[in-house]
Fold this protein.
Amino acid sequence: MNKKLIGLISMLLIAVLALAACGTSDDAAKDDAAKGDSNSSDKEYKFLSVLTGGTQGTYYALGGAIAEFIESDTGVKTSAEVSQASAANMTALKDGDAEIAFVQTDIAYYAQEGEMMFEGDKVDTVSAIGALYPETVQLVTLDKTGIKTFDDLKGKKVSVGAPGSGTYANAEQLLEIHGLSMDDIKPQNLDFGESQESLQAGQIDAAFITAGTPTGAVEGLNAVAKVFVVPVEDAKADELIEKYKYYAKEVIPAGTYGLAEDTPTVSVGAMLVIQNEVPEDLAYEITKAIYDNAPKLQHAKGKLIKAETGLDGIGIPVHPGAQKYFDEVNK
């Protein structure tokens, strides 16, 4: 009887030990899975997309060359993509549709803070690579329209960019400073290329174009007609900057687009942004590729892209990889 009892106890002990071993194996498997999940963001990047803007804008003109710099120096295949520019680019990066994008500094700030066109839709998964160059806010018309001031826009058909775009925000704010609103004009939601074609065909009277000068669309227009850029008078520029701190005074030099004299206006900044999840080492290599190779850019704005001014006017957090690059070169 005692022998049977001892045998039964032994069998129970064996069973308990076996279950404990299974439990340990299961826990280990779960731990391994969890480790795998925690490393899932450290994905290997075999392809990068750089969102630019419309084909007639400065973003697109520079984007192809910058994509080539990145691919050559990092070994990651990179392409520049046509897009709806700043606001759409921020949303696309948030949605995971691309990794890098050109944006206006004011639009990046709105996205980060959940303001203006991003109200209720904050973008906090994107950070800065660095600043590029000033983007001039240009109110373009043709000499034959007779439009010489902002007051002359009343009742006219004016291209203001796509709703929610950087150009639209700039147009709205400049109209406001001049005592006007979208209700005082006949707003047309056109991109730069469409604005050029519509001005040329007489279908619109003027167009807001926010881009680095010289802008391809305006140069194309100047090739077939006499261009006039409506000036922003000094007092109005001061008023605008007082209310919206990210603006700066700008001058379009005489000779640009065949203009007879310097034209005062305002500008915001152009910058590059990147998804936060891009690893620090890759972001560092991307930033280095852009700024080390910037002197090779053929566009007039290329000479303004410098590491020493790469953090100027940035209103959102800088990616750690980009910050590492600037810390090294700006010692």
